[in-house]
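User: I'm new to structure prediction. If I give you an amino acid sequence, what do you actually give back? Let's try with this one:
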Amino acid sequence: MNIKHRNKLKLVLLGMVTAGVASFLFATAVQSAAVTRPNIVFILADDLGYGDIGCYGQTKIRTPNLDRMAAEGMRFTAHYSGNNVCAPARCVLLSGKHPGHAYIRDNRGGLGGQEGQEPVPTGELKLPLTFHQLGYTLGAFGKWGLGPVGSTGDPLKQGFDRFYGYNCQAVAHNYYPTHLWDNEQHAALENARFSAHQKLPPGTDPQAAASYSGLVGKQYAPDLIGEQARQFVRENQGKPFFLYYPTTVPHLALQVPEDSLAEYLGRFPEEPYLGGRGYLPHRTPRAAYAAMVTRMDRDVGRLMDLVKELGLDERTIFVFTSDNGPLYDKLGGTDADFFNSAAGFRGRKGSFYEGGFREPCIVRWKGRIGPGTTSDRVTGFEDWLPTLLELAAAKEPITSGLDGLSFAPTLLGQPQEPRPFLYRESPGYTGQQCVRVGDWKAVRQKLNPGPRQTTVPKIKTELYNLAKDPAEATDVAAEQLEIVARLEKIMKEQHQKSGLFPIRALD
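Assistant: Good question. You get back a string of structure tokens that encode the predicted 3D arrangement of the chain. For your 507 residues, that looks like this:
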């Protein structure tokens, strides 16, 4: 080989080595950036009221771990769910769009007899899809409700790498189901099949309900789901993970293992719930509700303890909130008034008065979020996508097409402009709209009367000053016509017509 060819070969080899080194350094840099991104544990309760946990004023139900999370993090006093019922609230959370733009705007299931709810289209849930692109491993454990297994709304087709739990909201009305879903596999459980419409005859001895067929089974779904969630953390401790934990607790039916129930038996005056209203009976419904919340709190504590045990405490963001407010009293044995579940706010699940969708919200990130802090900033489910992206130090977070606004500065103790407005709508419960601007809140109802009502009633706008009247007891619309007009304009602008979920008075 002559000198010219030898030198040319050296240059080629040098170029290959240089390119290899550059590629290695780039890959290492990307891997390093991924490793330093914070883990995220997002816990979503089901039908839990603003006042159902200790750090929000609850006095009858023990929630020591959530109270500890609040003492070590930030507690929000004006955080709003994405909607006032299950599926649309989850759609807002995972898409970053408010209900006037989101794809799912009401609960809608039972399509063709298929197990599951109306599926979101491909690419709709920007939160999991975006974090997947950032190198996160994502797991969802609990209740899904955004599309049957195998559909476009399957969690495994919307950015999640792992799913375990209930795909269908209706199946989730039983805590001892005959099956759950393990990714796309039907996972049979050792529980008997029974009807949620079973009813005890009037005058039944309360203790008889203890052995009533179908009340309990061998495998309690929340326990199985909690263990799978913790296993996900163990298996992914060496890389950034996003754990989405939409527990079914404390949604009806009232069911809880006896070891948890024992903590509350005899503490409250009780009237047995005999069933017959779509949910199973229970001999001590108040004790059961309290025990369910405390057992959920125990699972939260186990996750927090595991993260600490694995040395991930300072690299993990914990979020806790709920999908909507508590049920109206006596439905399925619940007693929201007894527990002050709505913390004095007007309305319950299905309502856009405060009790229907203002939720507890706690965020903990050791070393980054000030312990024992409180924020009264108005925030909503659509804000989580941009907020978590900013906290994860995403260089180019997706913001186009979103309604959410990052409140990461607030979490990190920095000043921030107030949210311009927060908008909600629903075709359900006769059709509703609301918008909050500062302390002013406008509410509209009866926008979507049933098909038997041929004419749509004239729309009436109610107006409340939440600073002076947090219980929304006094409608001041007649005294504040200019403010009413301004808020009505926002509601008109934010509503986009939906073929799937029309609102007659608006469309």
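You can read the tokens as a compact description of the fold. Here is one thing that stands out. The chain is about 25% helix and 15% strand.
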